[in-house]
Amino acid sequence: MLLQNHKVSFIPGWDCHGLPIELKVLKSMDKATLNALTPIRLRQKAAKFAKVTVNAQMNSFKRIGIWADWDSPYLTLSPEYEAAQLEVFGQMVMRGYIYRGRKPVHWSPSSRTALAEAELEYSENHVSKSIYAAFKITSPSSSGLLDEFLPNVCLAIWTTTPWTIPANAAVAVNPELSYAVVELQSVLESESTSGGKQQKLGSILSSGIEKPFIIVASDLVSVLESKWGVKLVIRKSFPGSVLEHCRYLHPVNGNECSVVIGGDYITTESGTGLVHTAPGHGQEDYLTGLKYGLPIVSPVDDEGNFTAEAGQFSGLSVLGAGNAAVVKYLDEHVSLILEEPYKHKYPYDWRSKEPTIFRATEQWFASVDGFRDAALDAIKRVTWVPS
Protein backbone atom coordinates (compact mmCIF):
# COMPACT_ATOMS: atom_id res chain seq x y z
CA MET A 1 0.00 0.00 0.00
CA LEU A 2 2.91 2.35 0.72
CA LEU A 3 4.16 1.89 -2.84
CA GLN A 4 0.72 3.03 -4.05
CA ASN A 5 1.03 6.30 -2.08
CA HIS A 6 -1.27 5.21 0.75
CA LYS A 7 -0.41 6.17 4.30
CA VAL A 8 -0.15 3.01 6.37
CA SER A 9 0.27 2.69 10.11
CA PHE A 10 1.81 -0.70 10.85
CA ILE A 11 2.72 -1.09 14.49
CA PRO A 12 4.21 -4.53 15.13
CA GLY A 13 3.35 -6.30 18.36
CA TRP A 14 4.15 -9.40 20.36
CA ASP A 15 2.14 -11.43 22.85
CA CYS A 16 4.73 -12.01 25.57
CA HIS A 17 2.56 -13.98 28.00
CA GLY A 18 1.25 -17.50 28.13
CA LEU A 19 2.01 -21.10 28.94
CA PRO A 20 4.12 -21.81 25.80
CA ILE A 21 6.75 -19.30 26.94
CA GLU A 22 6.78 -20.71 30.48
CA LEU A 23 7.14 -24.26 29.13
CA LYS A 24 10.13 -23.20 27.02
CA VAL A 25 11.78 -21.73 30.10
CA LEU A 26 11.01 -24.76 32.26
CA LYS A 27 12.51 -27.14 29.69
CA SER A 28 15.80 -25.21 29.84
CA MET A 29 16.22 -25.77 33.61
CA ASP A 30 17.84 -28.64 35.46
CA LYS A 31 16.07 -30.48 38.28
CA ALA A 32 17.76 -28.53 41.09
CA THR A 33 16.75 -25.18 39.57
CA LEU A 34 13.17 -26.39 39.06
CA ASN A 35 12.89 -27.50 42.68
CA ALA A 36 13.98 -24.06 43.92
CA LEU A 37 11.83 -22.14 41.45
CA THR A 38 9.23 -19.68 42.75
CA PRO A 39 6.34 -18.22 40.70
CA ILE A 40 7.95 -14.75 40.76
CA ARG A 41 11.29 -16.12 39.57
CA LEU A 42 9.57 -18.07 36.78
CA ARG A 43 7.83 -14.91 35.57
CA GLN A 44 11.13 -13.03 35.57
CA LYS A 45 12.83 -15.74 33.52
CA ALA A 46 9.84 -15.93 31.14
CA ALA A 47 9.95 -12.14 30.61
CA LYS A 48 13.68 -12.29 29.84
CA PHE A 49 13.13 -15.13 27.37
CA ALA A 50 10.29 -13.22 25.69
CA LYS A 51 12.38 -10.06 25.26
CA VAL A 52 15.29 -11.99 23.73
CA THR A 53 12.90 -13.72 21.32
CA VAL A 54 11.20 -10.42 20.38
CA ASN A 55 14.57 -8.85 19.49
CA ALA A 56 15.57 -11.87 17.40
CA GLN A 57 12.28 -11.85 15.47
CA MET A 58 12.37 -8.08 15.00
CA ASN A 59 15.87 -8.25 13.48
CA SER A 60 14.72 -11.03 11.14
CA PHE A 61 11.74 -8.96 9.95
CA LYS A 62 13.98 -5.94 9.35
CA ARG A 63 16.47 -8.05 7.42
CA ILE A 64 13.84 -9.23 4.94
CA GLY A 65 12.67 -5.67 4.35
CA ILE A 66 9.38 -5.42 6.24
CA TRP A 67 8.39 -1.77 6.76
CA ALA A 68 6.95 -1.03 10.18
CA ASP A 69 7.23 1.30 13.14
CA TRP A 70 10.02 -0.75 14.70
CA ASP A 71 10.86 1.99 17.20
CA SER A 72 7.43 1.81 18.87
CA PRO A 73 6.24 -1.81 18.96
CA TYR A 74 3.65 -2.92 21.47
CA LEU A 75 4.59 -5.65 23.93
CA THR A 76 2.05 -7.19 26.27
CA LEU A 77 4.63 -7.13 29.08
CA SER A 78 5.23 -3.37 28.88
CA PRO A 79 3.91 -1.44 31.93
CA GLU A 80 1.71 0.74 29.70
CA TYR A 81 0.04 -2.26 28.08
CA GLU A 82 -0.48 -4.04 31.40
CA ALA A 83 -1.95 -0.87 32.93
CA ALA A 84 -4.44 -0.59 30.06
CA GLN A 85 -5.42 -4.24 30.55
CA LEU A 86 -5.96 -3.70 34.27
CA GLU A 87 -8.11 -0.65 33.56
CA VAL A 88 -10.41 -2.63 31.25
CA PHE A 89 -10.47 -5.57 33.66
CA GLY A 90 -11.33 -3.24 36.53
CA GLN A 91 -14.28 -1.84 34.57
CA MET A 92 -15.51 -5.39 33.90
CA VAL A 93 -15.25 -6.23 37.61
CA MET A 94 -17.18 -3.10 38.62
CA ARG A 95 -19.94 -3.96 36.14
CA GLY A 96 -20.25 -7.51 37.46
CA TYR A 97 -18.92 -9.30 34.39
CA ILE A 98 -16.15 -11.16 36.26
CA TYR A 99 -17.13 -13.98 38.56
CA ARG A 100 -15.67 -16.99 40.31
CA GLY A 101 -17.33 -20.29 39.51
CA ARG A 102 -16.92 -24.03 39.65
CA LYS A 103 -17.66 -25.78 36.39
CA PRO A 104 -16.06 -28.46 34.24
CA VAL A 105 -13.39 -27.36 31.80
CA HIS A 106 -10.96 -29.12 29.51
CA TRP A 107 -8.03 -29.90 31.81
CA SER A 108 -4.55 -31.07 30.85
CA PRO A 109 -2.99 -33.23 33.59
CA SER A 110 0.34 -33.13 31.74
CA SER A 111 0.42 -29.29 31.70
CA ARG A 112 -1.61 -28.90 34.91
CA THR A 113 -3.79 -26.18 33.42
CA ALA A 114 -7.22 -25.55 31.95
CA LEU A 115 -7.32 -25.42 28.16
CA ALA A 116 -9.46 -23.45 25.75
CA GLU A 117 -11.05 -25.24 22.79
CA ALA A 118 -8.41 -23.67 20.53
CA GLU A 119 -5.68 -25.39 22.56
CA LEU A 120 -7.00 -28.87 21.86
CA GLU A 121 -6.05 -31.35 19.16
CA TYR A 122 -8.41 -34.23 18.47
CA SER A 123 -6.96 -37.67 17.88
CA GLU A 124 -9.05 -39.97 15.71
CA ASN A 125 -7.23 -43.05 17.03
CA HIS A 126 -7.68 -42.72 20.78
CA VAL A 127 -8.76 -45.95 22.45
CA SER A 128 -10.74 -45.75 25.69
CA LYS A 129 -11.66 -48.48 28.13
CA SER A 130 -15.45 -48.46 27.72
CA ILE A 131 -17.83 -50.32 30.01
CA TYR A 132 -21.47 -51.26 30.40
CA ALA A 133 -22.45 -51.21 34.06
CA ALA A 134 -25.60 -51.81 36.09
CA PHE A 135 -26.84 -49.57 38.92
CA LYS A 136 -29.40 -51.26 41.18
CA ILE A 137 -32.77 -49.54 41.64
CA THR A 138 -33.77 -49.16 45.29
CA SER A 139 -36.99 -47.18 44.91
CA PRO A 140 -39.11 -47.02 41.74
CA SER A 141 -41.21 -44.07 40.66
CA SER A 142 -44.72 -43.58 42.01
CA SER A 143 -46.24 -45.13 38.87
CA GLY A 144 -45.66 -48.64 40.22
CA LEU A 145 -44.60 -49.94 36.79
CA LEU A 146 -41.40 -51.48 38.14
CA ASP A 147 -42.71 -52.91 41.41
CA GLU A 148 -42.97 -56.47 40.09
CA PHE A 149 -39.24 -56.52 39.25
CA LEU A 150 -37.98 -55.35 42.63
CA PRO A 151 -35.57 -55.82 44.30
CA ASN A 152 -33.58 -57.18 41.38
CA VAL A 153 -33.80 -54.55 38.63
CA CYS A 154 -30.96 -52.32 37.42
CA LEU A 155 -30.31 -49.34 35.19
CA ALA A 156 -27.74 -50.10 32.47
CA ILE A 157 -25.30 -47.34 31.55
CA TRP A 158 -22.38 -47.12 29.12
CA THR A 159 -19.35 -44.88 29.52
CA THR A 160 -15.92 -44.39 27.96
CA THR A 161 -14.68 -42.77 31.19
CA PRO A 162 -15.12 -45.32 34.00
CA TRP A 163 -12.95 -43.12 36.24
CA THR A 164 -15.83 -40.62 36.47
CA ILE A 165 -18.17 -43.12 38.16
CA PRO A 166 -17.02 -42.23 41.71
CA ALA A 167 -18.35 -38.72 40.88
CA ASN A 168 -21.70 -40.03 39.60
CA ALA A 169 -24.66 -37.98 40.82
CA ALA A 170 -27.51 -39.21 38.61
CA VAL A 171 -28.56 -41.28 35.62
CA ALA A 172 -30.24 -39.30 32.85
CA VAL A 173 -32.89 -40.52 30.42
CA ASN A 174 -34.64 -39.04 27.40
CA PRO A 175 -38.40 -38.62 28.00
CA GLU A 176 -39.07 -39.03 24.27
CA LEU A 177 -37.45 -42.47 24.07
CA SER A 178 -39.08 -45.79 24.86
CA TYR A 179 -37.38 -47.93 27.51
CA ALA A 180 -37.74 -51.59 28.36
CA VAL A 181 -37.17 -53.93 31.28
CA VAL A 182 -35.34 -56.92 29.80
CA GLU A 183 -34.66 -60.32 31.28
CA LEU A 184 -31.21 -61.84 30.77
CA GLN A 185 -31.69 -65.42 29.63
CA SER A 186 -29.41 -67.89 27.86
CA VAL A 187 -25.90 -66.93 26.80
CA LEU A 188 -25.56 -66.80 23.02
CA GLU A 189 -22.69 -68.40 21.17
CA SER A 190 -21.32 -65.55 19.12
CA GLU A 191 -18.05 -64.03 17.99
CA SER A 192 -18.74 -60.92 20.06
CA THR A 193 -18.11 -62.80 23.33
CA SER A 194 -15.29 -65.04 22.13
CA GLY A 195 -12.58 -62.50 22.85
CA GLY A 196 -12.01 -61.70 19.20
CA LYS A 197 -12.93 -58.08 19.87
CA GLN A 198 -10.98 -57.91 23.14
CA GLN A 199 -14.23 -57.88 25.09
CA LYS A 200 -14.36 -59.00 28.70
CA LEU A 201 -17.59 -60.22 30.25
CA GLY A 202 -18.37 -58.57 33.57
CA SER A 203 -19.46 -60.39 36.71
CA ILE A 204 -23.15 -59.84 35.93
CA LEU A 205 -22.86 -61.96 32.76
CA SER A 206 -20.23 -64.45 33.88
CA SER A 207 -21.10 -65.18 37.52
CA GLY A 208 -23.51 -67.84 38.70
CA ILE A 209 -25.74 -65.40 40.56
CA GLU A 210 -29.35 -64.75 39.69
CA LYS A 211 -29.37 -62.39 36.73
CA PRO A 212 -31.00 -59.02 37.39
CA PHE A 213 -33.60 -57.42 35.18
CA ILE A 214 -31.99 -54.62 33.16
CA ILE A 215 -33.49 -51.35 31.90
CA VAL A 216 -32.29 -50.12 28.49
CA ALA A 217 -33.69 -48.16 25.55
CA SER A 218 -36.14 -50.35 23.61
CA ASP A 219 -34.50 -49.57 20.26
CA LEU A 220 -31.16 -50.90 21.54
CA VAL A 221 -32.31 -54.29 22.80
CA SER A 222 -31.25 -56.22 19.69
CA VAL A 223 -27.94 -54.36 19.48
CA LEU A 224 -27.13 -55.04 23.13
CA GLU A 225 -28.24 -58.66 22.82
CA SER A 226 -25.62 -59.16 20.12
CA LYS A 227 -22.92 -57.17 21.92
CA TRP A 228 -23.42 -58.78 25.33
CA GLY A 229 -23.96 -62.23 23.88
CA VAL A 230 -27.05 -62.79 26.03
CA LYS A 231 -30.65 -63.41 25.02
CA LEU A 232 -32.65 -60.35 26.15
CA VAL A 233 -36.39 -60.79 26.54
CA ILE A 234 -38.52 -57.65 26.87
CA ARG A 235 -40.81 -57.90 29.88
CA LYS A 236 -42.26 -54.37 29.91
CA SER A 237 -41.94 -51.12 27.91
CA PHE A 238 -42.65 -47.52 28.91
CA PRO A 239 -41.63 -43.92 28.08
CA GLY A 240 -38.50 -42.46 29.65
CA SER A 241 -40.51 -39.98 31.68
CA VAL A 242 -41.71 -42.87 33.88
CA LEU A 243 -38.18 -43.34 35.21
CA GLU A 244 -37.78 -39.80 36.55
CA HIS A 245 -37.18 -39.74 40.32
CA CYS A 246 -36.47 -43.47 40.53
CA ARG A 247 -33.76 -44.02 43.13
CA TYR A 248 -30.73 -46.25 42.64
CA LEU A 249 -27.73 -47.30 44.68
CA HIS A 250 -24.46 -45.54 43.82
CA PRO A 251 -22.12 -48.38 42.78
CA VAL A 252 -19.13 -47.02 44.72
CA ASN A 253 -20.15 -44.96 47.74
CA GLY A 254 -23.49 -46.64 48.47
CA ASN A 255 -25.52 -43.42 48.49
CA GLU A 256 -28.95 -43.22 46.89
CA CYS A 257 -29.12 -41.17 43.68
CA SER A 258 -31.97 -40.24 41.34
CA VAL A 259 -32.88 -40.76 37.72
CA VAL A 260 -33.28 -37.39 36.00
CA ILE A 261 -34.52 -36.13 32.65
CA GLY A 262 -31.68 -35.16 30.32
CA GLY A 263 -31.73 -33.51 26.91
CA ASP A 264 -31.56 -34.54 23.28
CA TYR A 265 -27.92 -35.55 23.81
CA ILE A 266 -29.35 -38.87 25.01
CA THR A 267 -29.87 -40.95 21.87
CA THR A 268 -29.92 -44.56 20.72
CA GLU A 269 -26.91 -44.16 18.43
CA SER A 270 -24.67 -45.84 21.02
CA GLY A 271 -24.67 -46.97 24.63
CA THR A 272 -27.88 -47.98 26.41
CA GLY A 273 -30.06 -44.88 26.19
CA LEU A 274 -29.32 -44.11 29.86
CA VAL A 275 -26.46 -41.72 30.62
CA HIS A 276 -24.24 -41.89 33.70
CA THR A 277 -24.19 -38.27 34.86
CA ALA A 278 -21.25 -36.67 36.68
CA PRO A 279 -21.75 -32.86 36.73
CA GLY A 280 -18.11 -32.33 37.65
CA HIS A 281 -16.83 -34.10 34.54
CA GLY A 282 -18.91 -33.07 31.53
CA GLN A 283 -20.61 -30.03 30.07
CA GLU A 284 -23.98 -31.68 29.40
CA ASP A 285 -23.82 -33.41 32.78
CA TYR A 286 -23.10 -30.03 34.37
CA LEU A 287 -26.14 -28.38 32.77
CA THR A 288 -28.38 -31.27 33.79
CA GLY A 289 -26.92 -31.02 37.29
CA LEU A 290 -27.79 -27.32 37.51
CA LYS A 291 -31.37 -28.11 36.52
CA TYR A 292 -31.75 -30.64 39.33
CA GLY A 293 -29.42 -29.08 41.89
CA LEU A 294 -26.99 -32.00 41.78
CA PRO A 295 -23.64 -31.79 43.59
CA ILE A 296 -20.65 -30.89 41.41
CA VAL A 297 -18.18 -33.53 42.55
CA SER A 298 -14.72 -33.74 40.98
CA PRO A 299 -12.32 -35.80 43.12
CA VAL A 300 -9.35 -35.23 40.81
CA ASP A 301 -6.28 -33.03 41.39
CA ASP A 302 -4.25 -30.87 39.00
CA GLU A 303 -2.06 -33.80 37.96
CA GLY A 304 -5.03 -35.98 37.07
CA ASN A 305 -4.88 -38.18 40.17
CA PHE A 306 -7.79 -39.11 42.41
CA THR A 307 -7.99 -37.08 45.62
CA ALA A 308 -8.87 -38.39 49.09
CA GLU A 309 -12.50 -37.65 48.23
CA ALA A 310 -12.38 -40.70 45.93
CA GLY A 311 -11.67 -42.97 48.89
CA GLN A 312 -9.83 -46.18 48.02
CA PHE A 313 -8.84 -44.81 44.60
CA SER A 314 -6.93 -41.87 46.12
CA GLY A 315 -3.59 -41.14 44.45
CA LEU A 316 -4.26 -43.19 41.31
CA SER A 317 -4.09 -41.60 37.85
CA VAL A 318 -7.57 -41.31 36.34
CA LEU A 319 -6.17 -41.96 32.87
CA GLY A 320 -4.23 -45.01 34.01
CA ALA A 321 -4.31 -47.12 37.15
CA GLY A 322 -7.30 -45.25 38.57
CA ASN A 323 -9.46 -46.03 35.55
CA ALA A 324 -8.56 -49.72 35.74
CA ALA A 325 -9.17 -49.78 39.50
CA VAL A 326 -12.71 -48.45 39.11
CA VAL A 327 -13.51 -51.11 36.49
CA LYS A 328 -12.08 -53.83 38.74
CA TYR A 329 -14.14 -52.56 41.68
CA LEU A 330 -17.36 -52.64 39.65
CA ASP A 331 -16.58 -56.17 38.51
CA GLU A 332 -15.88 -57.37 42.05
CA HIS A 333 -19.15 -55.85 43.28
CA VAL A 334 -21.26 -57.38 40.50
CA SER A 335 -21.97 -54.11 38.70
CA LEU A 336 -19.98 -54.72 35.51
CA ILE A 337 -21.78 -56.04 32.45
CA LEU A 338 -19.09 -55.77 29.79
CA GLU A 339 -15.72 -54.11 29.23
CA GLU A 340 -14.27 -53.43 25.78
CA PRO A 341 -11.83 -51.04 24.06
CA TYR A 342 -13.51 -48.23 22.16
CA LYS A 343 -11.76 -46.24 19.44
CA HIS A 344 -13.05 -42.70 19.07
CA LYS A 345 -12.20 -39.02 18.66
CA TYR A 346 -10.62 -37.59 21.83
CA PRO A 347 -9.12 -34.22 22.84
CA TYR A 348 -5.37 -33.91 23.45
CA ASP A 349 -3.25 -31.06 24.80
CA TRP A 350 -1.73 -29.43 21.71
CA ARG A 351 1.48 -28.66 23.61
CA SER A 352 2.23 -31.88 25.46
CA LYS A 353 0.39 -34.17 22.98
CA GLU A 354 -1.14 -35.97 25.98
CA PRO A 355 -4.87 -36.71 26.54
CA THR A 356 -7.00 -34.26 28.49
CA ILE A 357 -9.94 -34.73 30.85
CA PHE A 358 -13.07 -32.80 31.82
CA ARG A 359 -12.68 -31.57 35.38
CA ALA A 360 -14.60 -29.07 37.51
CA THR A 361 -12.30 -26.45 39.00
CA GLU A 362 -12.60 -23.05 40.59
CA GLN A 363 -11.99 -20.63 37.72
CA TRP A 364 -12.40 -16.95 36.93
CA PHE A 365 -14.96 -16.38 34.19
CA ALA A 366 -15.95 -13.36 32.12
CA SER A 367 -19.67 -13.24 31.37
CA VAL A 368 -20.70 -11.65 28.08
CA ASP A 369 -24.38 -11.52 29.05
CA GLY A 370 -24.15 -7.87 30.06
CA PHE A 371 -22.73 -6.61 26.77
CA ARG A 372 -23.60 -9.27 24.18
CA ASP A 373 -26.39 -7.23 22.58
CA ALA A 374 -24.29 -4.06 22.52
CA ALA A 375 -21.41 -5.93 20.86
CA LEU A 376 -23.69 -7.45 18.22
CA ASP A 377 -25.20 -4.04 17.56
CA ALA A 378 -21.73 -2.52 17.15
CA ILE A 379 -20.87 -5.12 14.51
CA LYS A 380 -23.76 -3.83 12.39
CA ARG A 381 -22.20 -0.35 12.36
CA VAL A 382 -18.79 -1.54 11.18
CA THR A 383 -17.75 -1.21 7.55
CA TRP A 384 -16.04 -4.47 6.65
CA VAL A 385 -13.43 -4.63 3.87
CA PRO A 386 -13.96 -6.78 1.92
CA SER A 387 -17.68 -6.63 2.64
The H-level CATH homologous superfamily of the largest domain, spelled out, is Valyl/Leucyl/Isoleucyl-tRNA synthetase, editing domain
* First and last CA, distance: 19 Å
Count of discrete structural domains: 2
Count the strands?
Answer: 16
As residue ranges, the low-confidence spans are 191-196
- CATH fold type of the largest domain: Isoleucyl-tRNA Synthetase, domain 2
Average pLDDT value? 92
Oligomeric grouping of the chains: single chain
Largest sheet: 11 strands, mixed
SSE map:
Blueprint lengths: L12 E2 L4 H9 L3 H5 L3 H25 L10 E2 L3 H16 L3 E11 L4 E3 L4 E20 L13 E7 L10 E4 L4 E10 L12 E2 L1 H4 L6 E5 L3 H8 L1 E10 L7 E3 L6 E6 L12 E4 L5 H10 L28 H12 L3 E14 L7 E10 L5 H9 L7
Parallel strand pairs: 1-2, 6-10, 7-13
Antiparallel strand pairs: 3-4, 3-16, 5-6, 5-12, 5-15, 7-14, 8-10, 8-11, 9-15, 12-13
Helix pairs in contact: 1-3
